[in-house]
């Protein structure tokens, strides 16, 4: 029998566009206020991609930083996976565009679309490639320019999202790394959070909601997300024989501070063991978890050997988690 192989996070990187949009800036063009946004979501500001700055541009910066931190050259990669719901173009995939930019020609490359859970889904796939022995070095990216698909006159959605990217380099390791991943979806809840524009359904610009925009039943999403995340963190603890409180750090998807607090409570973790970036980044969809992870690593809070629980919830609905020894 061959020895067990883990997928270990060898390096992390992230990138945020320069432009910052504060709640007060938003209040200039939609009927909202800094107080309302902070009270309901915890968000104070978000970053917005410059004109012409694409998801692949953000992904490239984050990836270069992750490769440097891991001490891995792009030419050594066996696979690139990009979690995104805002690809530069319909095809080729953003992963293929990124592969060429990085000079990783020849390795496999594809996108995963699981909305805000995109990074967790992509991480789970990358981990399986390493565990199975199919790949030794995998670049996993979460990158988004959600600002490009928002209706900037809809205060119930445009205040929530931001642009950004994060990346990790996974390498095969005999000792430790990702311990388990857990993925779920419920396609029956499609219309609670979606963007109806498509290819196969046809572009219908004459219809009211046919522009490229996110539609959401915020309150229903909130309730479903809290329950789904409670359930997946319980599942993760059970699968690994852990108790509530055994986790060193919770690195959650950054959609809403109140959702994050609910998950921390479920895990019996105080908020000083939870990485929070939603106040400064808003919801960067698939970018949020690797952005938060990179920030926590670079600030020295997350240390080698610690037990990390990553989780996310998004349109689909999709949700999932990853438990890892960093
Ligand atoms: N500024 C001011 N008022 C706003 C507003 C804004 N940006 N957005 C909505 N409102 C108003 C609503 O119109 C409503 O007014 P009404 O009572 O006069 O009808 C009121 O605020 C309450 O709206 P509601 O949607 O019930 O608020 P909420 O407490 O559920 O908070 C969200 C709204 C969106 C912040 C919250 O539901 C949420 O975060 N949901 C999860 C969304 C999410 O995370 N999505 C991504 C998942 S990956």
From TrEMBL:
Transmembrane segments: none
Keywords: Acyltransferase, Cytoplasm, Fatty acid biosynthesis, Fatty acid metabolism, Lipid biosynthesis, Lipid metabolism, Multifunctional enzyme, Transferase
Taxonomic superkingdom: Bacteria
EC supergroup of this enzyme: transferase
GO cellular component term of the entry, any: cytoplasm
CDD domains found in the cross-reference section: KAS_III
MF (Gene Ontology): 3-oxoacyl-[acyl-carrier-protein] synthase activity; beta-ketoacyl-acyl-carrier-protein synthase III activity
Location(s), subcellular: Cytoplasm
Signal peptide feature range: none
Catalytic activity, reaction form: malonyl-[ACP] + acetyl-CoA + H(+) = 3-oxobutanoyl-[ACP] + CO2 + CoA
UniProt xrefs under InterPro entries: ACP_syn_III_C, ACP_syn_III_N, FabH, Thiolase-like
Main location (coarse class): cytoplasm
Sequence segments annotated as region (ACP-binding): 254-258
Active site: 116, 253, 283
Residue ranges of domain Beta-ketoacyl-[acyl-carrier-protein] synthase III C-terminal in the record: 237-326
Pathway participation: Lipid metabolism; fatty acid biosynthesis
Residues in Beta-ketoacyl-[acyl-carrier-protein] synthase III N-terminal domain copies: 110-187
EC number: 2.3.1.180
GO terms classed as biological process: fatty acid biosynthetic process
HAMAP family the record matches: FabH
PANTHER family named among the record's database cross-references: 3-OXOACYL-[ACYL-CARRIER-PROTEIN] SYNTHASE, BETA-KETOACYL-[ACYL-CARRIER-PROTEIN] SYNTHASE III, CHLOROPLASTIC
Family: Belongs to the thiolase-like superfamily. FabH family.
Self-association and partners: Homodimer.
Primary role: Catalyzes the condensation reaction of fatty acid synthesis by the addition to an acyl acceptor of two carbons from malonyl-ACP. Catalyzes the first condensation reaction which initiates fatty acid synthesis and may therefore play a role in governing the total rate of fatty acid production. Possesses both acetoacetyl-ACP synthase and acetyl transacylase activities. Its substrate specificity determines the biosynthesis of branched-chain and/or straight-chain of fatty acids.
Written domain comment of the UniProt record: The last Arg residue of the ACP-binding site is essential for the weak association between ACP/AcpP and FabH.
Protein name: Beta-ketoacyl-[acyl-carrier-protein] synthase III
Gene that encodes it: fabH
């Amino acid at each position: 029998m061959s020895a067990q192989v883990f997928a270990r996070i060898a390096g992390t990187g992230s990138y945020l566009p320069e432009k910052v949009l504060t709640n007060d800036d938003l209040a200039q063009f939609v009927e909202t206020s800094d107080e309302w946004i902070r009270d309901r979501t915890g968000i104070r500001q978000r970053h917005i991609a410059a004109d012409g700055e694409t998801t692949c541009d953000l992904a490239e910066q984050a990836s270069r930083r992750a490769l440097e931190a891991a001490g891995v050259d792009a030419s050594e990669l066996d696979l690139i996976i990009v979690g995104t719901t805002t690809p530069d173009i319909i095809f080729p995939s953003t992963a293929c565009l990124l592969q060429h930019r990085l000079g990783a020609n020849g390795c496999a490359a594809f996108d995963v679309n699981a909305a805000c859970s995109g990074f967790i889904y992509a991480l789970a796939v990358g981990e399986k490639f390493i565990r199975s022995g199919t790949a030794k070095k995998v670049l996993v990216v979460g990158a988004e320019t959600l600002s490009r698909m928002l209706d900037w006159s809809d205060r119930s959605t445009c205040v929530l999202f931001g642009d950004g990217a994060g990346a990790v380099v996974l390498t095969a390791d005999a000792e430790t790394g990702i311990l388990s991943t857990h993925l779920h979806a419920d396609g029956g809840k499609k219309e609670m959070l979606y963007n109806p524009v498509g290819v196969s359904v046809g572009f219908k610009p004459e219809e009211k909601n046919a522009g490229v925009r996110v539609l959401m039943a915020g309150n229903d999403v909130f309730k479903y997300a809290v329950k789904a995340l409670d359930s997946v963190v319980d599942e993760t603890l059970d699968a690994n024989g852990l108790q509530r409180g055994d986790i060193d750090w919770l690195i959650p998807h950054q959609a809403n501070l109140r959702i994050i607090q609910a998950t921390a409570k479920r895990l019996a973790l105080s908020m000083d063991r939870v990485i929070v970036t939603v106040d400064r980044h808003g919801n960067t969809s698939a970018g949020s978890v690797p952005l938060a992870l990179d920030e926590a690593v670079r600030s020295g809070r997350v240390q080698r050997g610690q037990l990390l629980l990553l989780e996310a919830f998004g349109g689909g609905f999709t949700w999932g988690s990853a438990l890892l020894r960093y």
